[in-house]
Each structure stands twice: as C-alpha cells, then as structure tokens.
C-alpha cells in the first residue's frame, strides 16, 4: 500500500506540472487513473476519480491516435467495475460500446483487439479461446465440491475464474499467494499437489501477461512442467497441462527469441494433440496452436517442412470444427493464408487456387456486420491479386479490386487497418494501370495512397510502407507522362520511407531499393551520372542487408544488375557489363522454376548478353540472349502484362542476329514476334511506341533485303504512329525519330524523291537535338545524320553538305570508344566522305586521310565482318589509286576476313552467297603480290582465299596429331565438336531440302485439291489445307532446330580454337598455311596455279623439292581475253547440250582450233617451258589449279590442231597427264595413310533409274554391263561389283559409305541458281546433291567416276569456290574423280568407261585410284584418234584430284 500511495502522489505531481497543450498530458492522466483504479479495487473507494481521468485522457486522443484503443479498454474496465458495484445495465452497455470501438480501431492481430474481444466474451459468459494462449485451468478446478472442507483450494479456483471474467488484478495477486501456500504445504503424494502446481502456473502466466515480468514466466514454466511430470499418462488433464506448458514456452520464445523454447513448445503441443481424443471439443484449438507454432518456426528458419506440417495440422483443425461454429471462419482464414505462404515460397499455382477457395469459404461464413468481415475480404482480395500476378488473368485483378474496395468501404474511418487496406487497393489499381495503361487507374492508386499516408499516424510501423508505395506511384506516373515534378515529388516521400525505417528492420532493404530505383529514373531523365552512382551505391547496401535465401534477394540483385548495365551503356566500361551479367545470372539461378518472376529475370539477363554482343561481337552472347528470351516467352502465360516486353526483346534479338548472319528466317521470325508484341500491347500503354518502333525496324530491314516497297511504306507509317504516341521530352523520342529519319532516307534511295531526303535530314536533326550530350546513342544518331548529308551531296553536289558530314563524322569517331563494334562502320563512313571530297577537290591529303581511316576500320578486331570487309575493299581501291605503300596490307586484311564472311555456323548456301562479295579480290591480291615480287605470298593468298568452304570442311575432318600429342584433351574436344558441327551442317542441309520439297509438294497437292473440290466440299478442302500447313510448319521447326544447333556448335568450336591458339607453339593453329607447308602438296607432280587478274595473268609453279614458287608471267593473255575465250567456249558448247541424249549433230571442229591454240601458245607452252618439259611422249603428271575464268577453260586440251602441227610436241597431252585440283590442300599427304579394309575392291555402280524424271539414256545399261564384263574377265578376282537396286538418294548414300569406288551412269545437272543443289538425277525425281555428297565424310579414298553431264562445270559467279559435283566427291573423301566439263555423248561414254576400267582392272594387283588420270588420258587419246569423234565429245572428260 505505501508503494501504491507513493505512485499515486508521483503521478499526481507529474500531471500537475504537465502543460495543457503538451502531447504527454493524456499519458499522465491515464497513468494516474490506473493507479487510482487499483486503489479503488483494493480499498473499495469510489470509482469516480479514475473514471474522470480516463475520460479526459480519451478526449485528448482523437480517432486515429495509436493509444485511443487502449484508453477505451481502460475506460470500459472502470464501467464494468461500476456495473459490478451498482448492477446498472447502463454501465455494462457503455463498457461494451467502448470495447467494440476499440476493436474497430485496432488491427485484428493487435494486443488491444484481442484484449477487447477477450473482455467482451468474458462478460458474455463464453468459452475464452484467446486466453488459452496463456493457459487452461486444471480439470480439477471444477471439482471444488470435493474439497469443501478445504476452503483455500476452492477460493483459489474461484479467484482465478473471477480474474478470467473481470480482470481484477487483486484477484490474481491473492490467488497466487493462496496457491503458493497450498503448494508449499501440500504433500507431494497428495494428488491435489499437481492441481495446485498447474493452477499456480496459470496464475503466474496471467500476471506475466499483465506486468511482463520475466520471473513470472520462468516460474510459470517451472510450475507447469512439474505439474505435467506429476500427472500420470492417460490422465484426462494431461493434454490440458501440456497445452498450458507449451503456450508458456512459446511466450518465452516470443519474448527472448530463443529457438529452443519454440522447439519445446512444438514438441509439447504435439504430445498434447496426440493425447487429445479426436472428438474432444478442445482438439481443434490445440491443432491450431500447433500449426501456429510450426508457421512461426517456418518464418524463423525457412524450413519448408514446417509450413507443410502447419498446413496438414490446420486441415485437420478445419475438418474437426463443425459447420456453423463461430471459430470456423477464423480457422479457414489461417488455413487459406498458409497456402498463400507456401505459394510465395514455391510458386505452385495449386496452392494459390486452394487459398482462394478456402478464403472464399471464410468470407461466405462470416456474417455481414461482423467486425472481422473486412479483414477476411482483404485477405481474399490480396490472394486474387497474387493469382493475377502469376497468370495475368485480368478477371483476377478485377475481382481483387472489387473485393478490396468492399473491404475498404466496410472499414470505418479511424480504424487502424484502414490505411493498410487502402494501400493494397491502390497497389491493385496500379497493377491494372500497368496492364491496360488507363491513366485513371494510376490516379486512383495515388489518391488512395495519399489517404493511406494521411490516415497513418507518425511513428506507426505501416507509415514507411504507405510512403513507399505512394513514392513509387509518382515514379510510375513520371514514366507515363514524363513530368519531372512527379519524380521530384517521389524523392522526399521515398527518403522519408527509408528514414522512418529503423536499421535492422526487415523492410529496410525494400525501401532502399525503391529509393535507388527513383535515382535511376532521374538519371535516365536528366542524365546526371551522380544519380546513377547513388542508385548503385544504395543497391549494394540493399543486397548486403538482405540475407541469402530471402525471397526478395533476386529482385534486389536484379535491380543492381540492371543498374550496372545502365552505367555500362553510359560509360562503356566493360567491367560494369560483366558485373551485370554475373549478378543477373545469380538472379536467374536463385529464382525457382515456376516462380512468376523467372521470365522477367531471364529477360533482363538476355538483354545484358545482347548488350555484350553489341560491344564485343561474340555471337555466343547473342545466342545466349535468344535462348534466355525464348525461355522467358515460353514461361510467361498468355495475357500476362510482361508478355509483350519479352516478345519485343526476343524479336529485336532476332533482328540483331539477322544483321550479323543475314539469315532471312531470323528476320521473318522477328517480324512475326514483333507483330504479336504490338497486338498484345493495349492502346495507351506506355510501351506501345517501343513495340511499333522495333516492328518498323524489322520491316525496313526486310525491304532492304527483298526490295518489297510495301514493307518500307508500312515501316514509315508505323514509325509515324510511334512518334505521335511519345510525349515531348520522353527519353525514347529520339530513337523513334532516328528510325523514321533513316526510313525516309531509304525511300529516297529507292524512289529518288528529294522530299524524302529533306524529311530525313530534318527528322534526324531533331533526333540529335533531343539526345543529351554524353548519351551513349549520341554517336549513332550523329552518324545517321552525317550520312544523310553525304547522300544529299551526292544528289545535289553542294559542298557544304559534305563539309557538314565530315565535321559531324569526326565527332562521331571521337565519341565512339576503341573496341566498340560500330567503330569500323563509322570510320568507314568518315573515310568515304574524305574520298568524296578528294574526288571533288582533288586534294591528295583527303585521299590519304581516307586510306588511313579505311585501314583502321578494316583492321579493327571487333565489329561487323561485313563492315570491316567493306572498309578493306575501299582501302584497296584508294591504295591502288594513290599507289600507296599499304596496298599489300589492304589485301592481306581483306583475305583474312574472307573466312569470317563464310562462317561455319551458316548454311552452305549462305556461305557461298557471302563469298560473292569478294569473288575477285584474291586473284587481284595475288597479282599485287607478284607486282611487288612476292610469288610465295601470292601462292599463300590464293590458297587461303579460294575454296574457303571446302577448306573449312577439310579442317573439320582433320585428326590434329600435333595437338593430340601435347594437349590431348583439347584435341579430343576439338574432334568431337568438329564432327558434331559437320553432322549438324549436313543435317541442316537435309532439312532445308526436306522443307523445300515439302513446300513444293504442298503447293502441287493444294493445286490438285483445288481442282478436285472446286465448288463442292469446301470444308474438306480447308481441312486438307490445314493439315498441309501443319506438315510444313513441322518441317520448318526441324529446320530451325538444325540451324540453332549449327550456330551453337560453331560458336563452341571458335571459342575452343581461340583457347588453343593461346598455347605456346599453336598460335597459328588451323590458320592459313605458309608456303613451306603448301609446297609438300606437289608430291605427285608439279602444281600449276593459273591466276587471271585485271592487271596481269600469271602461272605459279609449285614443286615439292623447291623452296620457292616459280613465277611464270603470261603477258600474252589478259583477263579480258580469258573472258572472251570463256564466251567462245559457251557458244561452242551450245551445240553439244543434247548429245548426252544420243542426238548427234553434224561434225564441225572448225571453231575449236582457234579456241585451243591461244591456250597453248599463251598459257600452257610457257609453263611447260619453265618446267623444261621438252620431250613429247615422256609423260609426267601435272596438276592444274586454275582461278577465275581459267577454271572454265579446257587447259588439258590446249594445243595447235591445224594440219601443220600434227606431229607430237604441239599439244599439252603430248607432254603431261593433266589433272585439275581446286586447292593445294586437296593433294596434301595424310599423316595416317588409308589402309584398305581388304584386298577386294568394292565398286558401286549406279545407273539411271526409270523414275528420275529425265529422258532415257540407253547407253548407261551398255556402260554398266561392260564394267561387269571387265570385272568378270580380269586376271584376278580383286574387284567386286555392287549395283544400286532402287536408285534412291538414301540407298545410294548408304552404299557409297560401304564401297571403295563409285561409278555413276546417269543424268547430271549444274544448277545455275543454286550451285549447292547441283547433283546427279536419281529415283523419284530427286537429286543426289552436292550437299548430300559432302556430308558423307568417307575415310576410304578411292575413285568416283561420274559418267554424267556437267559434273565439273562450276558456278560462273564463284569460279574460285569450285562448286561442282566432282569437287564435292573430293571433299566427301574420294581422292580422284573422273568428271565432265559439259554434256557428254551417250554413245561415247560407255567406250570411255570401258577403256578406263580395262586399264585400272587389267593387272593382278588391287586397283589403284591414282592410276585413273593416266587411264583416262589414254582412253581419251583413243577417242581423239577416231575421226568420227569430235572435239565436243572428247574434251569434256577430265580428271580431278590425285
């Protein structure tokens, strides 16, 4: 009592000195009121004093004040005390009103809400479930009648019951004193002892709850544990006692955070639940408590198993709670939110579906007007929002907004949960804005968030969250409208959110993250680097503050990674991009499959890979980007708001790959995908303009490739729409203007309308003016403006335009850092401008400037190969004009780039197409080397720059013995990759053929179907058409998969080669060979390279034993004369086009002598003289390696054929046995000579099949029969003959792999449009194409005899690539080939075959393909001696190879 009186005096003194306007006045009044209330209860004095003090305190705490609910509860307690004194119902009613108001103003889970609810239920005489958190009285308490002779026992129970009902503190104090005395004086063996311990533990728990004294909790646990230990197993009170002990363990865990207490609570509750019968009324409550403890441990440790257990236990609790029970909705609520927890952890959609179903039931079972109705609606609404975020179904978002709106409307003003519910409603409005782009939704979100912030008192823990969301909404509106004021408004709000969040608070990282996002946004608007630096600094703190395994860690890493990427874009520091990729990879790895954020994270990683590709040009980065984006698109459900963005990035990546590789399929894919992105982006969406802009870029690219003006017109129209959609000041405006300007320029180039060029310049000026200084795209936009000035100069001749272009392009080059992939093209543009000024003014220094710039562009290690190659060609042109000393360097750079143009990751057709850009440059380079006196360099360049595709194919089949002996693992990996790459290339060629055949067959079948169903059965026709389209699409998918695999393998192999070349001694591994290596190819006889260039023609003789090339100038023949001879040959050959069909033409050799004599006099005779071949009849082998137009001329038939020169010594075949080779490498000796598998040579004969679709060739049957007869009559059975029975492509290819030699007697076709489709006509009207042949990779060597037309004709536009069937046989593994330069006679072909095979099979040894050249020489010699055989008929037979 003295202490109480002393407290009252001190509280009274504090109140007396407190000013009336001081914020602590209400607290002082409440403290004094509480002390006087205790005094009134102890001494029984009047309650008026505490009542008046509590009323005054309440008046000082208006609605919205944090302490108002507590004041209401205290005031209600005084009115209940008066009710007990006076039994006046008005007092009880007032108390209940105060308690209900307290519940409305407090959060559902708050201490005030639980206390008010508890007191109301006490007064209503209901069972008090919330109190069970602290304990249940022992079951013996209801048996006080058994102890009537022992008043203290009964009194202690009654005091506890009264405290539970009225909450009078003296009751609990008195009960504790009595129970302590009873426990002290009762024998341990008295069964009442454990009852006293149990009730004492409950009483101590009550007092701990009131005063928070840890000693009370420790003593409560001690007493309850003793009670449990003393209660025998099977006793009905055991579960209740265990339950009470568990709640005290949990209370201590919540106070001290010791995990061991939580573990004890769980194990004790498990035992309580297990001991509680299934039908016991307390079973559901105990299950709920156990589940709550599991959830608490899950929140602490993150162990998913705890959450799983919680869900299982809550499911049992729900099942055991009868329908209609008032606890049913609350139990369902806990059950549903547990599924939400698991969804957030695992991303399993089924959890979200279960949560929605259960929470709907909870809402439906909660009556209207129930104080928990708004809370349960709120939980249901946020769950719908989560499902929308996962699936993107707009209906879920609409449901969320409707339900959350109801929750807000049902929540009274001043209720503490009102701000939180407004906040979630605002977030949903914001989500709908992001989906539909309706500005009204964003405005509603901002309005609701302003209300939430205003209703949340300063110091409230939710204040920072509301501020955070309001700030980010201002940022979002800034992104939509571009109003800087929104961004400026956001900053102080977000900074307040951070400042109000204490260190160590779990939300601190999230709030810092949003502040960093705003700094980044302001940087993107104003370009102030300090904002970006601050954003990165803050984000680093965010990442450091977030523990590993935290679900938000990937998001924070994502923002840090993208900020590094932005800084890279600004400063160009490659380390920033490397950091971005490493961090974003971690983001993807940390995000589980099925998580809704996975696609977005993949998308960001992909854009970083793409940025690195754009900087370094490594194709592997672009492939990784496309792969990640494909996954992102596949993982994003249709209708999801992120779908268009993923499609947009995937489409632009396909455009980028098209620009690099030129594959039209990439561009078609890009247009299709970008059209989808445009279609899925609603009108008014902030990203609509970006989708339109990129679609237009793709359409423009297709126009530039295919020339369809409709594509360009559509691109311009789309770009105009995109520009109109972007508000002035928006950072994307310049990019769209750039594309519109370049499109106008392209249309000018096509149509010549000067207005288009003027529009282009004006629009490009605007794009440049709107781009701030230091922006990474500034150089690109300046570059396009400058090239437009150059274009206008070319049209109008105004020198000022050219001067402007040079001035701007100088800035462009200066602003473009070294190592940037666009540096070569920009250097090239500046050089072109200097060259144009030289042509106009004649100033030699301009030409020298151009040469210097071209050389830097061509020699750059990074950049588009096409741009560097173009620069190298310009360099050559200028150097030749100026007789500049750098000419040979220019040629060297060009030749080095040729293999990169024909990269192994492209299809054969595409590689040959790319090589057409440099069709003549190698021969001109060789001529220049000879001008400077470097014949060995000329040989090296001619080998390096010719038959590039075939040379790469030979590399793939190399065994790399030197590498194997030093670095066996790398050699093994290289062989694996090379084999896989070759297989992928062959597979792609087959799938290309299959796709083409499928399309052609589809068109044919559709045509037939149209005729068949015309006007009758439209439904059947459309079904058939759909099936046909599906079949074509399947073939297309197969083709695309093959293309993807080919590129991936080529990239891997390139990377491995770069690695190998870093090893000592392997710096030149698989690069161009030096002359000393090449000359070994002449082991079987001299090799003569015939080079025809614009300025000179020459022969270069390579001998194996001579360490230099023998240079034989050919001054009496020129490139023009070679071309004229080629034209003459065409006219002569026209007469023989049909002779393979057996049709004879009149014998007329008059045109051949004047055609063949210049070849002898001007080409062959000087070579033979240089070799000192002066004795006719003493035949030597010679290998002709012609270039350019020489490849189409019959060098092997050169000579004087007039009667005056009939004696020996005037024709090439009098001195040598001629063979042709496309490259020196084809003659190279293998380190591992081929060992025949047996002594028996297996010869495959393929005759014309009846279904080849060609006219019959009667001679082929006689031809094959003669071969059979020769084999049968040979001296030794060393040869066996296999015949193709079906004559299909598949059968023939299979047999070619099994046999040693092959003989074809059928039609051959040289395809002028697509040389790789040239081939031999087989069954089912199909060809055995070059692409099929080279895929064989035969290890056997041997001879291929092609008794068919045009098997060694080649492509006139790519003469140096030897694209003909005979070359294909060499690269398939045959070492020698008998082929034909044009059509051959069906009557003569069998005679030639007979004579050749009689020579080869006529001795007692295994036939040797190396003797085929001599055998053909003699067989053709027999034809020449026949006066009935014309030049037309014997000249086309040639030998190719060894």
UniProtKB/TrEMBL annotation:
TPR repeat placement: 246-279
Signal peptide interval: none
InterPro entries according to UniProt: CHAT_dom, TPR-like_helical_dom_sf, TPR_rpt
Protein's name in the database: CHAT domain-containing protein
Entry annotated with the keyword Oxidoreductase: no
Record-annotated CHAT domain positions: 1155-1441
Lineage: Eukaryota, Fungi, Dikarya, Basidiomycota, Agaricomycotina
UniProt cross-references to Pfam families, sorted A to Z: CHAT
SUPFAM superfamilies: TPR-like
Keywords, ordered alphabetically: TPR repeat
